[in-house]
Amino acid sequence: MKTHKDSDTIDVSVVIPVYNEEGILSASVEDLFARIDASPKLEGYSFEILLSANGCVDRTVDIAHTLMERHPRLRLMQSEEPNYGKAMRMGIKDARGKWVICDEIDLCDVDFYERALYRLREEGYDMVVGSKRLERSFDKRPPFRRFASSVINWMLWLATGFEGTDTHGLKAFTRERLLGVVDDCVVDRDMFASEFVIRAGRADFRVTEIPVEVIEKRAPSIQLTKRVPRVLRQLGTLAWVIRFKRPKA
Fold first, then answer.
1. Tens digit of pLDDT per residue, the chain (249 long)?
2. Residue-range definition of the domain harbouring residue 50
3. Distance between CA 119 and CA 89 in Å, rounded?
4. Strands, E, within the chain: which ranges?
5. Between 194 and which of 73, 167, 182, 220 could a Cys-Cys bridge form, CB atoms 3.0 to 4.6 Å apart?
6. Beta-sheet strands, E only, within 90-170
């Protein structure tokens, strides 16, 4: 496994937004580094892991600093606002890697890294989305959460014409190719990831989906019912900017 000292460039940046994750952060990061380094398919890639802390009021940031002392490939960004989309956007823009993988601290799916990087590097895709809803996916989340994902996907189709099966969660992409799409996104919080995937597809970048296994390590950090009004407002914004708003001349 290459380190930063082996090259002036980094192959892969893993961006992980974190919000009040003191309970699982240390074990998740340690396990992620161990599995990356043990993977024969990732040998030869240099990695950095970028934690994008947003609005944390527990010991998440302190734990991250301790982890950074043990892992030179770990970096930390901080924002005072609890805003998932903003944290993800900041991480992507600050990433140093040729390829960026957006992950979740309760997933850390190295198998996805292996398969996605192959499709980016060898098959020429611009973006690979890890879908929880493909036929060969293994989604062990509670039934209510699986139902909510289906509803959101249907609403995205209704609002924007999106024809894929998933937008939120695991994704990998070539940073230089997709950075302009990140800059074009107008929503943040819950729906930034969705807008990013939808815009990439509509801009005729090569986007593909692959099945993933989802087994959560903890309950959602924000209750789904509290997110509903905000998600509905953002869906309305997406419908307007993607379907109806004319691009600037």
1. 554 444 458 999 999 999 999 999 999 999 999 999 999 999 999 999 999 999 999 999 999 999 999 999 999 999 999 999 999 999 999 999 999 999 999 999 999 999 999 999 999 999 999 999 887 776 777 777 777 878 888 888 888 889 999 998 899 999 999 999 999 999 988 899 999 999 999 998 999 999 998 877 666 655 556 667 777 788 888 888 887 765 554
2. 7-244
3. 23
4. 10-18, 47-54, 74-79, 97-102, 127-131, 138-139, 171-174, 207-211, 213-214
5. 167
6. 97-102, 127-131, 138-139
- Ramachandran angles phi, psi of 69, nearest 5°: -65, -30
Bridge partners (DSSP) of residue 166 are none
The domain spanning residue 21 has which CATH number? 3.90.550.10
- Host H or E run for residue 176: helix 175-184
In 3D space, the residue among 29, 162, 183, 176 whose CA is nearest the CA of residue 105 turns out to be 29
In a domain, 92, yes or no: yes
Q: Is residue 2 part of a domain?
A: no
Residues 51, 128 contacting (CB under 8 angstroms): no
The pTM of this model reads: 0.88
Residue 171 exposure: Cα atoms within 13 Å on the Cβ side = 24
